[in-house]
Automatic annotation (TrEMBL):
Transmembrane domains' residue ranges: 19-38, 58-78, 90-110, 116-135, 147-169, 175-197, 225-245, 265-286, 293-314, 320-343, 355-376, 382-400
Database matches in SUPFAM superfamilies: MFS general substrate transporter
UniProt record, GO biological process: xenobiotic detoxification by transmembrane export across the plasma membrane
Protein family membership: Belongs to the major facilitator superfamily. Bcr/CmlA family.
Annotated protein name in UniProt: Multidrug effflux MFS transporter
UniProt keyword list: Cell membrane, Membrane, Transmembrane, Transmembrane helix, Transport
Compartments reported by the entry: Cell membrane
Membrane topology: Multi-pass membrane protein
Top-level taxon: Bacteria
Length: 436
């Protein structure tokens, strides 16, 4: 994303001086569309299996399709918006999101559900990636951090509420009501965005390099192991959470016989744990570095996931399993903000591309790993725990391999203010004096 010149420059767009509640609420709702799209229908998995005459593994692939859409959408829409602005891609994506949601209401096959879930993920990505871009367009300095912190709180809270809301729809009727609700939510966002959001990226600030420049930036990031290794680490760690998300409804509702409402409570406890971990991580930053947090938390996650696997193999009861799952998920709350903090600090001159690739890796690796529990078969609880332990262990090995490269990689301080991509003109970059 192109870095604007200093605010005093004639070509710089006007900056917001006050954070309004309405503006933040709208951006929060746009951010929430991703987590809601992922999590709202989880408690309905058993009902969908029966209704569409399919299998658990095929239903889990619909979640994989959603995650794949979210991964690809962040790369495509984020890059496109840097070239043509935010408003048109956002309104177009929301319109397609509504159509996909309505289509799901009437699906009669698992194949069509999978295709439409991919479209839902692809278009929901616009709300997540463009809300962040709009913040960067409208604010600067500490205000950017304040607004994004509020949006991240929504990302933490939405997964807590989504399965609970979904369980209520199941009490009212069919699982298809959930997608009626998502369609209505999409229409509401479309109307509000059309009426309240103005274009935040003027033509003078847009990227001129087109697709070639975006691909060049992504290519250089993939070749940089200090970045790409971190992106893989974050992706594999998030895959543990997505593995749990895809398998949890079968573990708790089918193996342990819990109701949809009871399942929603347990799922919410895990989401609360992730949120608490994220908030504690934020409080620690400044006292310790994100690298130090990763060096402690990833091994802790390995130990906890190993204990979870041992508990499932030994036939431990539900309370023990829930406690270990909640604690393991809590470590993800530390990893999620720490990985981008380290990666973006070293890539300020291409932070737009770096942020999009980090997000894509999170959902992309998750999309590849999440269906394994259904494909492997056997005891779903043991399989889920084994996959979670496996991917967190891979994250630990990646962290070990990154130790030397992270120490050698210089912190990028070439850009002042908001981040830029590789194609930023030289006169838009401002050197930052070394501290001290």
């Amino acid at each position: 994303m192109v870095t604007p010149p200093p605010a005093s420059s004639p070509s710089a767009p006007p900056r917001a001086t006050r954070i309004t509640v309405g503006f933040v609420l709208l951006l929060s709702a746009l951010t929430a569309i991703g987590p809601l799209t992922i999590d709202l229908y989880l408690s309905a998995f058993p009902q969908i299996v029966t209704d569409l005459g399919t299998t658990e593994s095929r239903i889990q692939l619909t979640l994989t399709a959603t995650l794949a859409g979210l991964a690809l959408g962040q790369l495509l829409i984020g890059s496109l918006s840097d070239a043509i602005g935010r408003r048109l891609p956002l309104l177009t994506a929301l319109s397609l999101y509504v159509l996909a949601s309505v289509g799901i209401v009437f699906v009669q096959s698992i194949e069509m559900l999978t295709v439409l879930r991919f479209v839902q993920g692809l278009t929901a990505a616009a709300g997540m990636v463009l809300s962040m871009a709009i913040v960067r367009d409208n604010f600067e300095g500490f205000q950017v951090g304040k607004v994004i912190a509020r949006l991240m709180l929504v990302v933490g809270v939405a997964p807590i509420l989504a399965p609970t809301i979904g369980a209520q729809f199941l009490r009212m009727g069919s699982w298809r009501l959930m997608f009626v609700a998502l369609a209505v939510f999409g229409v509401l966002l479309l109307v509000l965005a059309a009426l309240r959001l103005k274009e935040s990226l003027p033509p003078s600030m847009r990227r001129t390099g087109g697709t070639v420049a975006a691909l060049r930036s992504y290519g250089s990031l993939v070749r940089d192991w200090s970045f790409f290794g971190l992106a893989l680490l974050g992706g594999f760690y998030m895959a543990a959470m997505f593995t749990y998300i895809s398998a949890s409804t079968f573990v708790f509702q089918e193996q342990f016989g819990l109701s949809a409402q009871q399942y929603a409570i347990i799922f919410g406890a895990g989401a609360v744990s992730v949120t608490i971990g994220s908030q504690v991580n934020g409080a620690l930053v400044g006292r310790v570095t994100p690298e130090q947090i990763l060096r402690v938390i990833v091994p802790v996650g390995m130990v906890l996931s190993a204990a979870l696997l041992a508990a499932t193999l030994s036939g431990a009861g539900l309370p023990v399993l829930v406690a270990l799952i909640v604690l393991t998920l809590g470590t993800a709350g530390f990893v999620m903000p720490s990985v981008p903090a380290v990666a973006l600090e070293r890539n300020a001159h291409r932070a737009g591309s770096a942020a999009a690739l980090l997000g894509a890796m999170q959902f992309g690796v998750g999309a590849g790993i999440a269906p394994l529990t259904g494909l492997i078969g056997g005891d779903v609880t043991i399989t889920m725990a084994a996959v979670m332990f496996g991917v967190i262990s891979v994250a630990g090995l990646l962290l070990l391999s990154l130790t030397r490269s992270l120490r050698a990689a210089p912190v990028d301080t070439t850009v002042h203010g908001l981040p830029a991509t590789d194609d930023v003109p030289a006169d838009a970059k401002v050197a930052v004096p070394a501290s001290g």
